[in-house]
């Protein structure tokens, strides 16, 4: 339970079903008949942990449908931190046994003992075409597990690549959802999909990153290595940031991203007034010391300079010098109120997302609509120790879909630490159950 003297208030608003927005029509074929998730590559898919079973498992079921839809002589490439889902394993085994689809999977070494992993490995070994592996683990030390492929902590990725599925080629799915019960269907998650000609560049970049993971070459600055070996790492629409990178106060990737935000100079979008101030929205599983503290400092600075900053998280550190008390809740020095800050209560189904949305001035250009998503948490491990990805998407339609979903999870978060919209009150006597 969070300390009562730190509670700022509560918003309890009923939530509705999961959101599904699409870059492709829902399928009516065999794969789609198995569940209610999209049967073809779809730009944006989100689950609802408080909804029906179909709504809770929407992202998992979507992945199953894409696996089932993989076409003859195509390939499936997966990097997944956890691998503990029987439906995904079953779909993969069926494809492996068909010997018409090549499957390659890397899993974090800590999760190599699950039954789904073992079952897929038996099928893959028998096929001699497909494989599933983990990177050779080291000995835990210094608070790091050494179960990653490149860094010294964990292989935390969650991406799925399909050379051809559901009538689309170059399909890239980047999700926040793990292939496990708790941090999959029991938490809010999103999945973004690129495809076709639009996805070709990104598909190739992810394949290059997968090859780096597969090589098991340990390095403390994969970020710079990826730029040097596989650059350019961006095009007009996408940019890929990978970790780990050398630890220092200047290498918190998300904090550096926020340093490229400017609060004014927009002609449209942003706040709904004549000023069009830039809006920064954050949906985060964690805001923890280290990287999270650096990000919180940037968010407070931006709000103080006139941006509208809106944050919702599941685990926001309350250490005296941490991101909440030492960052987001600092008293403003200008005319603005301070960031909007909300958090899920202990017994709620929280968000597992790692999303930052920018509506306004970014990287020297006004009127931008930018989404950052991926597997990278706002903590110490993701920037400096994990194998992790941040994907930048510059696209107004995609931003709108993520924004609509953000409003939904913000409404579901029970604790309001700070808001300019209403008086808050103490929620100590209320209970929330996931």
TrEMBL record:
GO terms for molecular function: phospholipase D activity; RNA endonuclease activity producing 5'-phosphomonoesters, hydrolytic mechanism. Keywords: Hydrolase, Lipid degradation, Lipid metabolism. It catalyses: a 1,2-diacyl-sn-glycero-3-phosphocholine + H2O = a 1,2-diacyl-sn-glycero-3-phosphate + choline + H(+). It is an enzyme of class 3 (hydrolase). InterPro entries: PLD-like_dom, PLD_domain, PLipase_D/transphosphatidylase. Residues 352-382 form the PLD phosphodiesterase domain. It holds the Pfam family PLDc_2. The keyword Lipid metabolism applies. Coiled coil: none annotated. GO terms for biological process: lipid catabolic process; phosphorus metabolic process. Its EC number is 3.1.4.4. Belongs to the phospholipase D family. This is phospholipase D.
């Amino acid at each position: 339970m969070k300390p009562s003297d730190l509670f700022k208030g509560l918003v309890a608003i009923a939530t509705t079903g999961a959101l599904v927005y699409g870059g492709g029509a829902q399928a009516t074929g065999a794969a789609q008949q198995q569940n209610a998730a999209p049967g073809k590559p779809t730009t944006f898919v989100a689950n609802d942990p408080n909804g029906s079973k179909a709504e809770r498992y929407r992202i998992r079921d979507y992945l199953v449908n894409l696996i089932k839809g993989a076409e003859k002589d195509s390939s499936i490439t997966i990097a997944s931190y956890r691998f503990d889902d029987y439906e995904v394993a079953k779909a993969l085994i069926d494809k492996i046994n068909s010997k018409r689809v090549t499957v390659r999977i890397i899993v974090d070494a800590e999760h190599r003992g699950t039954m789904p992993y073992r079952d897929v490995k038996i099928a893959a070994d028998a096929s001699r075409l497909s494989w599933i592996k983990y990177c050779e683990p080291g000995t835990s030390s210094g608070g790091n597990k050494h179960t990653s492929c490149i860094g010294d902590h964990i292989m935390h990725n969650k991406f799925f690549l399909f050379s051809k599925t559901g009538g689309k080629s170059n399909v890239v799915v980047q999700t926040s959802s793990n292939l496990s019960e708790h941090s999959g269907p029991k938490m809010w998650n999103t999945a973004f999909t690129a495809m076709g000609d639009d996805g070709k560049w990104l598909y190739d970049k992810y394949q290059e990153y997968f090859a780096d993971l597969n090589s098991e070459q340990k390095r403390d600055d994969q970020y710079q290595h990826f730029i040097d070996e596989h650059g350019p790492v961006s095009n007009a629409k996408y940019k890929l940031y990978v970790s780990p990178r050398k630890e220092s106060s200047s290498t918190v990737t998300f904090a550096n991203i926020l340093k490229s935000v400017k609060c004014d100079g927009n002609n449209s979008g942003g706040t709904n007034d004549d000023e069009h101030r830039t809006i920064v929205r954050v949906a985060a599983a964690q805001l923890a010391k280290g990287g999270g503290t650096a990000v919180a400092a940037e968010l407070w600075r931006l709000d103080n300079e006139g941006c509208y900053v809106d944050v919702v998280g599941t685990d926001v550190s309350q250490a005296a010098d941490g991101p909440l008390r030492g960052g987001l809740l600092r008293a403003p020095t200008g005319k603005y109120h301070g960031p909007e800050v909300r958090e899920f209560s202990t017994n709620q189904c929280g968000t597992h997302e790692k999303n930052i949305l920018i509506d306004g001035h970014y990287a020297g250009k006004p009127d931008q609509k930018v989404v950052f998503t991926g597997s990278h948490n706002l903590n110490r491990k993701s920037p400096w120790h994990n194998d992790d990805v941040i994907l930048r998407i510059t696209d107004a339609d995609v931003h709108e879909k993520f924004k609509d979903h953000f409003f939904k999870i913000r409404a579901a978060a029970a604790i309001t630490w700070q808001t300019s919209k209403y008086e808050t009150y103490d929620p100590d006597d209320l209970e929330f159950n996931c």
